[in-house]
Every structure is written in structure tokens, then in C-alpha cells.
Design goal:
heterodimer; A: about 450 residues; mainly alpha; 15 helices; about 80% helix; globular; B: about 260 residues; alpha/beta; six-stranded mixed sheet; four-stranded antiparallel sheet; about 40% helix; about 25% strand
Chain lengths: ~450, ~260
Amino acid sequence: MSPRQVLIHYATASKPTGMRSVVLYILSLPLMALLSWGILEPSYGITPDQPGGIPLEMAFWLTCLASAFLSFFVMEVLFRRQDIKFLSQHPILPQAIFALRMRQTFFGILRSSLPMAAFWFPLSLTHPMLGLMCLGVWVGGLCLCVAVSAATIMYVGQSTLEPSTTRQAAASKFTAAPAIALAISLILVLLLKLLGEALLKPQAMDAAMTASGIVMGAFAASMGYAYVVFSRRYYAVLANFSDNDMVLLNAHYAYIDDKPRMRMLEAPSVRSLLVTKDILQFRRRHTSTMLLMVGIAVLGAIALFSTPSYSHELFLPFLAVAPYLMLVHPWHVLQSERFETGLLDTMPIASDVIAQAKRLACFQIMFPYVVMATLGLVVPMLFHGLWHSAILALVCTPGLYIASTWIMSRMVYRFGQATRPVTYLLAALFVISAFALPTSMMS
Amino acid sequence: MNCVLDVQQITKKYGEFTAVDGLSMQIAPGESVAFIGPNGAGKSTTMRAIAGMTRLDAGSIRIMGNDVSQAPVEARRHLGFVPQDIALYQHLTGEELLTFVAKIRGLDTQTSQTAIDELLEICDLGQARRRLIREYSGGMARKVAMAAALVARPELVVLDESFVGLDPESTFRLSQYLKRYTQAGGALLLSSHILDMLEPLCTRFFILHKGQCVGDFSRNDLKNMPATPEMSKLTALYLRSTEQTELMDAFAQKE
């Protein structure tokens, strides 16, 4: 095996896919198809002027939403992941690391395309070309986002190597890089959507050719630029990135003794202890937060019941989750307690067990609220005969809550104590989606 | 090119704070250098700079003649590094990780297998070789990280606080292995606060304080020092070099 093959072989082996992930992935396929039935009206809003109708608009917004995460993710995999620290200690050509990371990222996009294909499957039964376009916008948009993000981060990284760049300026540049990449990506995704629309109109073939040229040119140029700069300056940029990313304190290292850490078989019992501790702590210290959570749910339900009819109910699950992401999510409370006490950091417990326990505690604490919020949305919808929207609310309200908790638990490793701004960003994205989706429904 | 490591006037600042201030040092083949200093003296920053993992504000570092920032891959070819905050592939077994590193560094199968077997034996990881690293204890993970740095026997090995949390048997066996490694021409730079371990292992003692070199002593210098009953020679040397004479007086009074 060549060094590149060795790298790919072992890096892939180090990220095993568990049986649970496979089952969830397979289960997601019918769920996505069901969700699609719930969201999309049979007419799809297709007109001669807008041959893409609602589905293409929705594909565009979903791609934008995914791009927002992907632009950060690219920076993560190139510079911040734990295994990069290990790989960077060895004589590995930057080109090999670039190839590995791009391979993993593009493979991830491909994996996500199957559930999305399931999502567009009901549409494809009646409009196969449109279904293909929607999938094309998703896959093409995300690939563009990866290429543009890699090129932007390398451009920004290279610019921080100039001697005149101060540490503060370099840190600001690295922080801004994913946002810049996202802005460029969104323009290109919009172009991709217009390309999709043009391809559905036979008379607009010239415009389609021009748009496809621009999109493919942007992809090739971004990948080429990223590859060249990566090959030449990767280690220098990585060193600079590590300096500016954060200052790590490893004070507790000296106190870790050689007692065996948590074995896999022992983990569940310790995890349940941690969950019990978290729930007790939360209930005893944060009664007012609990009341606020119930208050939000009750007020929301009363508002919905008192509304005689609502035309754009699609946004309601997003709005049901967003306020308590910002205000009362137990993750913030539990996480701040962890930082305050620091007790668990000194104990022989694997950090992933602590995170799992915290996630479970969040789910248990929030379970009554999620049930109330979901029923508060679903019952009035069924009452008004909006069964499509009811299915959507039934899936989306708990789904968004679970997804947001999961994202927050993953963010803590990346952003440490800065999870709260990330949560606000997440909530903002939910609110934007809440308004963007009905707009796309209307168009 | 006589020296394995050539550090020239390096400076590293974090905002207003100067972590390393115009430091220079050379390490020749076969030398075993202890890097000693109080917390925050700049040891880890210097070692990370040697590994090319931090950007310097001034100065240069060469490993076997290769500038770390200009020729990073070539410099890394001659370097084995274990940072203070170790990062490993958690879902590989110890043996798989070492095989991976050996293959990346171009060792043939037979040589790598011999080296891996030897290192796993020395690290007392023979029984755990087929267990996932995520199931290892902190000390076991640290030992496998050291084995990964040593498996291809690079010309220079840099160990940053790598003996923290190791049991006495492993510490002894690894010390013996490192001795053999330097006797065979390898160069070692090792930071630790366990002075009693460093004294018999190292041939040179480089003392860092506030980012600057405040002492560079050979083992002969240490031998020629007058003995004190209350503390080891290296401890006395360290306290004197880092201007902690009041602590020495306190020791003496206690005795």
C-alpha cells in the first residue's frame, strides 16, 4: 500500500460505523419519504413561469441550511479535529491529508443524498425531472460549499502568515472564514437553483449553459486553489490556526492517575448515575426554569387553540423549539455546572460518557415539555383537518429538539464554554427557516 | 551538519506575554537533553515549535538541516514527538496505531513488526495490543503515544511531560529503552518535573525560566557540584538557576 492508501485505510478504520447508526440511517429513508408527503402539497405549486415550484425552492433552502453547518465542518476537519493533531506529528504530505479529508467529506455528502433522494421520491413519481433537479441542487450545492469553504479557509490561512498580521487579526480572520465561505456558497447555490429552473424550461437552454459553466468553473477553481495552497502551506497555516484557535489549559493532567478509565461494559451504570445527578441538580436548583418551560408550552398551546385558522403552519415546529433553545435549554445549565465545579474533569470518567449522560438528562428533563409542545401543535392541526402539517409537526418538533441537543453536545468539544453563542446561531437558523419555508411555499 | 536539532534565537509571544524569548540550543546525535523549568517557563511552547505546531514570531528551527517551517514534511521525517495533550485514533487498537505509524514512516513489514513487538513489550501493552485505544487508561494511552513516536526510531525524539501518570515499572523500562536509543546515536529532548528520573537518564540539563535559558549543564558539571544532604544535585541546580534560593534555605533549615 502507498502512504496515501495507508492513511485512508487506517483513518477510515478509526471511524467505525456502528450497527445503531446503520439502523438509524435505514430508518431515516421511509421517514424522509413520509415527511415529504407531509410537507409537500400534491400540486407542488408548479407553473409555466416557475417550473421548479415549491420543491426546488425548498431544495434551495435546505441546501442553504446544510451549507451553514458544512462551512464550519470543513474548517473542523481540516484544522481542528483531534486526529489532525496526531497526523500532523508525522511526515505526511499535505496533499495526502487534503485527499483524505475531501474524500471523507464528499463521501458524507453522498451518504446524505440517499435520505434526500427518499425525501424527493414521492415527487419523482409524478415529476421525475424535477425530483432529479432537487437532488442535484442538494448534492451540487453541498459539493460547491465544500470546495468554496476549503478555498476560503486556505486563502484566509495563507493571509495570516504575513509577518504584519497580529494574533488578534489572525484569530478574527479564522473566525470569519466560514461565514465568508457561506456567503459565497449561498450565491453559487442560488445560481445552481436558477440552473435547475432553466433546465426545466427548454427555451432557456443558453442561460442553463452559462450557469452550469459558472458553477463548474467555480467548483474547479476553488478545488484547484485549495489543493495548491494546501500542498504548499498547510503545516504553516495549521500551526498558526492552532495558536489562534484557543489556549488550552491542561491543569488536571497532572492529577490523572493510572487507574483504568471507564470500560465500555461499566459505562452504562456510571452514565445512569450521572443522569440521576444531573436531573436532581437541575430540578432542585432551577425550579423557575422548569416553570418557564411549562409557561412557554402552555402559552403557545393557548395561542394556537385560540387561532381559528393559520395558513402557514409549516413554521410552527421551528418556532416552538427556538425560544427555549435561547432561553431555557437545560444543556446550558448542566454545562455551566460542569465548568463551575470541574469535578468530573478530575474523575476517571471518559468525556464521551459525561456528554452522553448530559444528553440523556436533557432529554428526560425536557420530555414533558416536548410532549406538550408537540401535542399543542398536532391537536389543533388535526382539528382543522391539516393532516399534512400535523405529520410534519409530529416529526419535526421532537426531531428539532433532539437534533439541537445533539448538536450542542457535539459543539462543546469544539467551542468549550462558547456553546451559548453557537446555540443562538442555531436558534436564529431555526427562526430564519421558519420564515423562509412559508415564503418558499407562497412563491 | 553535526547537530540533529538547531534552534536559533526563537521568540514566541502570546499577545503581550512572551512565552519564549530569544532561545537558542543545539542537540547533537547521542545526546539526551532534559528540559527543565517551572510551569509557564516556555518548555511546551518550545517543544511544540520544534514539532512545527506553533508559529514563531522570530528565529528558526532546523531538524537534521531541514527548516521546520520551510520543509515541514522532511523535518517531521526525522522527528518523533509526543505532546502534552496527546491525541490518538480512539477506534484503532494499540497495535493497529503503531502499524499505521510504521507504514506512514516507510518501515517494511518485518522491521515494523519487530519494533512494534519490542515497544509493546517495553510499554507492558502486550496484553492490551488488540484492545481499542478508547478503552486504555490515561497512562496506557500515553505509553502507546510514546511507542508511536519511537517506532520508526527517528533521529530526534521530543517528549513533553510524557512520563506523567506512568507506573514505576514502565517508567524504568522506557528510560532504559531511551538510554539504548541515545547510545545508538538518537537524540532526545525530554521535559519533566520528575527530576529524580531525569538525573540518571539525561546527559545534559537545559534549564528554562521566563522563556530564557538560565542554565545549560552537562552531567559532568552535575557530578562536580558539591553534594547537599537535603536535596539531589539536580534539584539544587534547578532551584538555584530559577532563583528560588529561599526555598533552598527553607529545605536546609528543615533538615
